[in-house]
Amino acid sequence: MSPSKIIEDIKIMFDKVGSSINIPLLNGGWLEAELMENGIKVGNQVNKNLLPWSAFVEVVNLLAGGRGDDAPENGTSNNQSSSGLYITDIHGVAAYVVFGARLKHSVYKQVAPIIAVLIWAKICRFQSGFLILNQTNHI
Q1: pLDDT tens for residues 21-75?
Q2: Residue 72: how many CB atoms within 10 A of its CB?
Q3: Which of 6, 28, 42, 103 is the most exposed, having the fewest neighbouring CB atoms within 10 Å of its CB?
Q4: Measured between alpha carbons, how far is 34 from 92 in angstroms, rounded to an integer?
Q5: List of E strands, the chain
Q6: Cα–Cα distance between 16 and 106 in angstroms, integer?
Q7: Taking a C-beta distance cutoff of 8 angstroms, is the pair 124, 90 a contact?
Q8: Shortest CA distance to 101 belongs to which of 86, 116, 114?
Q9: What is the pLDDT of residues 89-138, one digit of tens each?
Q10: CB neighbourhood size of 113 (10 A)
């Protein structure tokens, strides 16, 4: 899996529509997103404003490994606490990579913006309650 390909695909989508846009969320809301050199700045994300490229790369790598069925049913599980951090699911990867959570600590699941960007960039799709990696050059 090429991290540069994942980042390139997201940047291409921004190039088509502009560097500051609204991306639809799975719950029907919108994510204010702005392309930055080191990631995507989001306007309505709790606590953190920048989603680094590593977050998108790690989630895609997790999906490519066949463990992408842990997406929340509606993709909006923000602020739901967990009893611990597992870096073998999307929530754990996001907490560990993006939010700096440590292993064995409680985390807040804030993956909706990452999922929204990956779907919008056509890297993934949400189907029957699952986040699925599209069969493109990402695998």
Answers
A1: 999 998 898 989 999 999 999 876 554 578 889 888 888 887 887 443 444 433 3
A2: 20
A3: 28
A4: 24
A5: 20-24, 30-36, 39-42, 50-52, 80-82, 107-109, 124-127, 130-133
A6: 39
A7: no
A8: 86
A9: 676 776 776 667 766 665 545 678 888 999 999 999 988 888 888 876 55
A10: 27
